[in-house]
Automatic annotation (TrEMBL), chain A:
Name of protein: tRNA threonylcarbamoyl adenosine modification protein YeaZ
Chain ranges of the Gcp-like domain: 28-121
Naturally occurring in which organism (per UniProt): Parasphingopyxis lamellibrachiae
InterPro entries reported in the protein's UniProt record: ATPase_NBD, Gcp-like_dom, T6A_TsaB
Pfam families on file: TsaD
Automatic annotation (TrEMBL), chain B:
Family: Belongs to the KAE1 / TsaD family.
Protein name: tRNA N6-adenosine threonylcarbamoyltransferase
Gene field: tsaD
GO BP term, pick one: tRNA threonylcarbamoyladenosine modification
Enzyme class: transferase
GO molecular function terms listed in the Swiss-Prot or TrEMBL record: iron ion binding; tRNA N(6)-L-threonylcarbamoyladenine synthase activity
Subcellular location as annotated: Cytoplasm
Its EC number(s): 2.3.1.234
GO annotation, cellular component aspect: cytoplasm
Database matches in InterPro entries: ATPase_NBD (IPR043129), Gcp-like_dom (IPR000905), KAE1/TsaD (IPR017861), TsaD (IPR022450)
Protein's organism: Parasphingopyxis lamellibrachiae
Length: 204, 344
């Protein structure tokens, strides 16, 4: 059994797989309620979600959401003596978009970051791969960077409206879709991908 | 005999401990973050939360290994669920929930302040309810009548800064470094406590509460006057703080009714001059004085595990959807103290 946990966005999303096949999922838009909902949702899965392997969304995403998911995943891993791995939220969104037969060969994932910036990462479909590393960019810099015809994520609409090019689609990561990721993309270390330094400046 | 795992992550220490109902501390581990916060002169919440998530599960693994136990051997998981920096609290609470689900164990959501309040009973098996507790920490300065597990009556609180906050701000003003409490205590040892005239806010007042903001402002003026060494200011500040704590606690003793002991807990209780003055006050009142060892006064997970032991013994446990709370007063019925910068 493999348990997938995704709390990187306003969705609280869990899924259980057997040999790569989906057995059960729970997916709810909870806003900020991950810390309350996550463990009861796992407990509702068959066998209380017990698995030999756990994969968890490491971000980028809500800092608090990431830590809720990672803390739970690591604790369950310790308690069940299960392996814990991570995946990137942006990679999962890209894989979900590419699962549409009409999707283009390249796309850019853009999600809202902090301080008016957005997280941007571009992917190719065949082979599934990232074109460039994750970046936190201002909208102008993002427009300059992105050449892809399809923009996905919660900042996609804003960005395509600003640039006047590209089709925009909002996609949320969903635990039940994690098997769309090639294996290497769901074997990251289970540590947060914040994408941005903490907001803190040393006093003068 | 019950064995409880305790988890703590509400401020800038990540900690795990295994404690038995027989008061045996089977293992305890703590990772501080002083280095990470030092450049900022105070705890930065996002930096704290990032550090907690990295070290929490390794600390849990470490205490199980040290005690040669596994999750199946324990009776319950106790985790701090507040009050504190919410991003950090969530890390410990989610770790606790995950372990509770994985092991099929009850979860005990512990109020961090109850951890401090009951820690003297971990240190001293003879301490019975009810006792008068002076809880002096980084975020709190309260007199509590501890009547039983989960049963607290707040007799007094600070109307502005906490005592530990006053130590931390004084250390910052005097350039003594971070964290402030131990630095001020050390500097005070070589200073003259009578050298700087400083106010004693609230002393002698009928109103039961504490106040430290005026003392902090006076420290700033003393520093800017250029007349005093940092050591003299530190010693005078500590002496003024002690006078305030002793006066207010004496007033609390007078209104507390029958109690078994005067007890002090929280990080500031690790200050030996403060302990000495409170011990003398207890003796003047014919009461035993109880203070946990200094390492049990500052944040740690043994006190959380112990609060877990006490709550578990009272059949108290919590559902897995319990929220983390930034604010969580021990005595929810206490009237708001005038001017209080509400901390809990
Ligand atoms: N030797 C000392 N003398 C005076 N103050 C001290 C000493 N050692 C620690 N402190 C103070 O104790 C405080 C830390 O205590 P503790 O860890 O209990 O507080 P906290 O957990 O940050 O706050 P709270 O428990 O109210 O949420 C700090 O303000 C620190 O300066
Ligand atoms: Mg504390």
């Amino acid at each position: 059994m493999m348990l997938a946990i995704d709390t990187a966005t306003d969705a609280c999303s869990v899924a259980l797989f057997d040999g790569g096949k989906l057995v059960a999922e729970r997916h709810e838009i909870v806003g900020r309620g991950h810390a309350e909902k996550l463990i009861p949702m796992i407990a509702e899965l068959p066998g209380k979600g017990r698995a030999q392997g756990i994969i968890v969304d490491c971000g980028p995403g809500s800092f608090t959401g990431l830590r809720v998911g990672l803390s739970a995943a690591r604790a369950l891993g310790l308690g069940w003596q299960a392996q814990v791995y991570g995946y990137s939220s942006l990679a999962l969104m890209a894989a979900m978009a590419f699962s549409d037969a009409n999707a283009p060969g390249r796309l850019a994932v853009t999600i809202a970051g902090g301080h008016g910036e957005m997280f941007v990462q571009r992917f190719t479909r065949k082979p599934f791969a990232e074109i460039a590393p994750l970046a936190s960019l201002t909208p102008d810099a993002a427009i300059a960077e992105i050449e892809e015809p399809l923009l996905i994520g919660n900042a996609a609409a804003e960005l395509s409206a600003l640039s006047g090019v590209g089709e925009a689609r909002d996609i949320r990561p969903r635990a039940a879709e994690t098997m769309l990721l090639p294996k290497a993309f769901r074997e990251l270390p289970p540590s947060p991908i914040y994408g941005r330094a903490p907001d803190a400046k040393p006093p003068q | 005999m019950a064995i409880i795992l305790g988890l703590e992550s509400s401020c800038d220490e990540t900690a795990a401990a295994l404690v038995t109902s027989e008061r045996e501390i089977l293992a305890h581990a703590l990772a501080g973050q002083e280095e990470a916060h030092r450049p900022f002169g105070g705890v930065v919440p996002e930096i704290a939360a990032r550090a907690h998530v990295e070290v929490m599960t390794p600390l849990v693994a470490q205490v199980f290994e040290e005690a040669e136990l596994s999750l199946s051997d324990i009776d319950a998981v106790a985790a701090t669920a507040g009050p504190g920096l919410i991003g950090g609290v969530m890390v410990g609470l989610m770790t606790g929930k995950g372990l509770a689900l994985a092991g099929g164990k009850p979860l005990v959501a512990v109020n961090h302040l109850e951890g401090h309040a009951l820690s003297p009973r971990l240190a001293d098996p003879a301490l019975e309810f009810p006792y008068l507790l002076l809880l002096v920490s980084g975020g709190h300065c309260q007199l509590l009548l501890v009547k039983g597990v989960g049963s607290y009556e707040r007799l007094a609180t600070t109307i502005d800064d906490a005592a530990g906050e006053a130590f931390d701000k004084t250390a910052k003003l005097l350039g003594l470094g971070f964290p402030g409490g131990p630095a001020v205590e050390k500097a005070a040892q070589t200073g003259d406590p009578a050298s700087v005239p400083l106010p004693r806010p609230m002393v002698g007042r009928a109103d039961p509460h504490f106040s430290f903001a005026g003392l902090k402002s006076a420290v700033l003026r003393a520093r800017d006057s250029g007349h005093y060494t940092p050591e003299d200011i530190a010693a005078s500040f500590q002496a003024a703080t002690i006078d305030c704590l002793v006066d207010r606690t004496a007033r609390g003793l007078a209104s507390a009714g029958d109690i078994t002991a005067l007890v002090v807990a929280g990080g500031v209780a690790s200050n030996s001059a403060i302990r000495g003055a409170l011990r003398a006050l207890a003796e003047r009142n014919g009461l035993p004085f109880i203070a946990p060892p200094p390492w049990l006064c500052t944040d740690n997970a043994a006190m959380i595990a112990w609060a877990g032991v006490e709550r578990f013994a009272a059949d108290l446990s919590d559902p897995l959807d319990i929220p983390a709370r930034a604010r969580w007063p021990l005595d929810a019925d206490a009237a708001k103290a005038r001017g209080a910068g509400v901390k809990a």
